[in-house]
Amino acid sequence: MKNFALMVEYDGCAFSGWQRQQNAPSVQQTLEEAIRRGLGSQVNLIGAGRTDAGVHALGQVCNFRSDTRIPADKLPFVLNRELPHTVQVQSAFEVPWGFHARYLAKGKHYRYIIRGARFPSALWHHRAWQIPYALDVEAMREAAAALTGTHDFKAFCASGSEVKSTVRTLYRIEINRSGSEILFDFYGNGFLYNMVRILVGTLAYVGQGRISPDQVSAILEGADRRQAGITAPPYGLY
To answer: Could you confirm whether 52 is annotated as catalytic?
Structure first.
């Protein structure tokens, strides 16, 4: 029996999220079924994190154990033949028996894309949050500086979320413009439910001038979800 790690890319629009569900297609179920068909064995796939319906992945790590004799570097070829085009394995590795994609994750990186243009793009539909006016990137960067470090992010967590602690560490936030797109990159030790989408919604308010960069610190300290911005749509998140 061996332990394998996969690096997976997927289009979240096709799924109800990562985690297996009773009555909706999930990334986990789709991959597990492809592994069963390709390798001839039933497995329990462990993901480094869970994504919501509509959220995409460029490099989701997951692992499973199998007695297959297929070498790790051949697994993408075998599994991609069994998978729909909406989810594909980019690489595979044999890892130590104790490797656990979730518990051994050292950090997580989320990217959110806003497309700021006067008219919507057909090709960016469900690939970015399309906002038909310019955003002040410098103001958003100033606001983001107050969010880095270890804080209680209760104000940026979806209401009703059940977690033991809302304290998380954001190592850094990068906000860069690339043509019509603004890329928000969040690096941290972990994220609360809808945390990145609420952070982006709040920063977008700053970019619009609806709230000032200084107010973001007060929102963080106030720990009141109602004071933060909207929850940005899922399809801009990777």
So the answer is: yes
